[in-house]
Amino acid sequence: MRLDEAARAYLGVPWRHLGRSRAGLDCIGLVLLAARDCGIAAEDPAPYAREPSSQRLREELARYLDEVSIADPRPGDVLLFNLGIYGGHIGIAGLHPQYRCLSIIHAYAPRHRVVEERLGADIEAMTGVYRVRGD
């Protein structure tokens, strides 16, 4: 199973800072649970501020995944975004089932839940793409 397939099982779960269960997830929690469901054990970088450091996220992602070209994300990749001055956000790339275009599956505070959305203007804030080793 790919990360995007595992992440879809959490669509609709409420957003909650530092959430790590179906009762509530944040962006890192979603990636950790999807990875666990795929048999990938990763350490939880919590605790962290409401907007975790993008540099710290980059370092953690590099421990478990291979960084690939930002120009070529594909379904199942983990996407890293810069938000604000220090803030980071991560999600999982997918192929949107309705629109058949690249999407992001993420626990997103402004949406108050885990959602899958077309990857559009937010691609400008993307700073890294990470792929499961061997994929």
**Physical arrangement of strands within the biggest beta sheet:** 3-8-4-5-6-7
Which structural class fits the helix and strand makeup? alpha+beta
Q: How many domains comprise the coordinates?
A: 1
Inertia-based shape:
globular
The helix fraction, in percent, is 10-25%
Number of strands: 8
Mean pLDDT: 91
End-to-end distance, in Å? Answer: 11 Å
Proportion of beta-strand residues: 25-35%
How many helical stretches? 3
User: Which homologous superfamily in CATH is the superfamily?
Assistant: endopeptidase domain like (from Nostoc punctiforme)
- The CATH architecture term is Alpha-Beta Complex
Order of helices and strands: HEEHHEEEEEE
CATH topology: endopeptidase fold (from Nostoc punctiforme)
CATH class: Alpha Beta
Q: Main beta sheet, described?
A: 6 strands, antiparallel
- What would you report as the Rg, rounded to the nearest angstrom? 13 Å
Which regions have little confidence, pLDDT < 50, spanning 5+ residues? none
